[in-house]
């Protein structure tokens, strides 16, 4: 009798335990689904007011891109030191009088930044009238819900039709956990009746096959529209013969693909690359990683690497470009 009673008690206990585990799993699934939905909703956010600035006929446009991920020393900085670093970066943007700025590697909410919203502070201090935030990492898992980081696009001109262009994820798991690899696409109104398409990108490092797939998708976007097009960001690749170059299993290179099939112009041009054009790491640059590519509608008038930059582990580049006459 006692053995039967013990068996019944154990059966009753494990049945309750199983129901409890199923309930917890269902609750976790609902929570995860809700957070994933919220992550999609806030993947792109507009900040600030609209701009009324216009670009005069035949005036050049200045574009800057930089990856603001800190170097090893900066990564250990206090909150106050991080705030000062962002303020210094914003001051440099203002001094350089850049029209479009695409920034990667900003924390929106992360323990390593001591809760500092670097993106919000940069937008405030830089003074650009138009800004969009794009979350690259928004974990969506309750224990990791504070892990948010991403990119910012700052503009002196009005932006419209701002959206994401999905690029190949490194893994389905990362995509599930809201590790967003999408490009940031925006139509920039330089003046009434004159618009361009800006694409801010950040390719996965060390995976030339994914990089080539991403370039294929940008070429497809180019074929689907007829606006003058600019690409800017951290490509983590360089053309063949340039330090930092990778070749995919199919024998292709992501930068050369855009130059050859999309008729994009790169600076420095073929055969003109010197160590002064290297962008990473900032302390002792050894390779080209960031690029600003302009299609055939543009004339590239100047390319500049900010060599005295010490605010992150990658040097910014500035392109001065002029639209060709129609």
Mind sketching the topology for me?
Elements: H1 2-41, E1 44-47, E2 61-67, H2 72-75, H3 79-96, E3 100-109, H4 118-126, E4 130-138, E5 148-155, E6 159-165, H5 172-176, E7 183-191, E8 194-202, H6 208-223, E9 229-234, H7 254-262, E10 290-294, E11 298-305, E12 317-323
Parallel strand pairs: 2-3, 8-9
Antiparallel strand pairs: 1-4, 2-12, 3-5, 4-5, 6-7, 7-8, 9-10, 11-12
Helix pairs in contact: 3-4, 6-7
What does it look like?
The protein has 326 residues and is an alpha+beta fold. It has two domains: 41 residues; 278 residues, Deoxyribonuclease I, Chain A. It is 31% helix and 27% strand. The protein has seven helices and twelve strands. Strands 1-4-5-3-2-12-11 form a seven-stranded mixed β-sheet. α6 links the parallel β8 and β9. α3 packs parallel to α4 and α6 packs parallel to α7. The protein starts with a helix and ends with a strand. The relative contact order is 0.14.
Beta-strand content estimate? 25-35%
What does the radius of gyration come to?
A: 23 Å
Provide the spatial order of strands within the biggest beta sheet.
1-4-5-3-2-12-11
- CATH class group of the largest domain: Alpha Beta
Low-confidence stretches: 28-40
Tally of DSSP helical segments: 7
Average pLDDT over all residues? 85
Largest β-sheet summary:
7 strands, mixed
Distance between the termini: 96 Å
Q: Helix and strand succession?
A: HEEHHEHEEEHEEHEHEEE
**Record field, number of beta strands:** 12
Which structural class matches the secondary elements? alpha+beta
Helix content: 25-40%
CATH homology group of the largest domain? Endonuclease/exonuclease/phosphatase
CATH topology (fold) name of the largest domain: Deoxyribonuclease I, Chain A
